[in-house]
Predict the structure.
Amino acid sequence: MGTRHAGQLRWILVGGPMKQRLAYLDNLKILLVVGVIALHTAITYGFDGSWYLESYDEMASAVVDALTVVLGTGWLFGLGLFFLIAGRLTGPSLDRKGAKRFTEDRLIRLGTPVVAYTLLISPFLEYVDYRWNGGGTEALWPFAREQVWHFAPGPTWFLEALLVFSLGYALYRVVRPEAERPSREPLRGRQVAAAAAAIAVTSFAVRLAFPLGSEQFHLQLAAFPQYVILFSLGVAAGRRGWLESLTPRLQRRCGLAGAITALMLPAMLLAGGFFEGGAAEDRFAGGWRWQAAVVPLAEGVIATCVSLWAIGLFRRRLDHLRPLARLMAPAAYGAFILHPPVIVGLALAVQPLPLPAELKFIAVLVAGVAGSFALVKLVSRARPIARIIGFGPTPARQRPSAGPSERPASRPAPAPPGA
């Protein structure tokens, strides 16, 4: 067993610098990015949601309903898990870099992609939305010149939110410096339950003002209670070693609670008339109705419990990278940013083909995943872009510590997105 791997785990557990990528988190991020691409591809072919091409070619209603259950359940925790992972990496990163360097790094790694996407990519994709979803007739260039000033971030809203969360946490640490190290007590079930309850209560309250599915400043504020709470949970976990010390018993309990809730969710949707569409579907978006309370309750349990169960599973079983994942891991962050033009371009290209919408969905999804990751590999030949998106060496597998005397490697690899 090499001292580099042992030293890495020791520094994670004591809250010191973490300079190596973690394979289990990279595997999770690959899966989550593929899930985001699948969601946007599904919206293109009939799944309900907000996207540049909505119902461009509609699949059969039975297929859409099945995707609604699968992708809808994934939506309840997928983006929250992104924020949990980002929070997990934020605390050690701030400890290692200090507030000034941490802030500069975040502005470059998160702020630069938001600005670039908003100015260079978004206006042209918004034109697709304008022409297809809105039925507009204005020419491209006049529309694009005007659209630049609308500052529509597209999927980089996630980076925008993460930048605000990260800088807010850094400011908090500067204003209220810690007198002593955080407790190293392992995560308890009552803390998981408290996080789930907080998500449920605050989400229900926020959706009284901002219904689910509505947008404010290009953001869906209805979902932000989950994001804030899971980011905060991740920050606490990163400084207390909660994810690395997650017990098998607590992991099983989280998995069981998440599975039961996910299995009950379709029945609750059916009972509330969700699949009837229209006004019946809107009952779940917010308000003083039992349907509007069901979704936040399920969201709180699934977002918290499934996220922790998945992290425990990947840490114990998938803390290594197979050859394909080794190629994809460094490009996951960039693929998240660049997948919209790839998906939209592929959908437009295959539209004239005499194929069922279901086959087009599969073809665009598979080609979209491959194309998005390949595009990142291509543009990362430019060193400034590679630095921003963290395209670098792949992770090392985490192994048990051999003792407290070993130190971490002296030559760090580039940190993963969020570190």
Q: What stands out?
A: The chain has a mean pLDDT of 85.
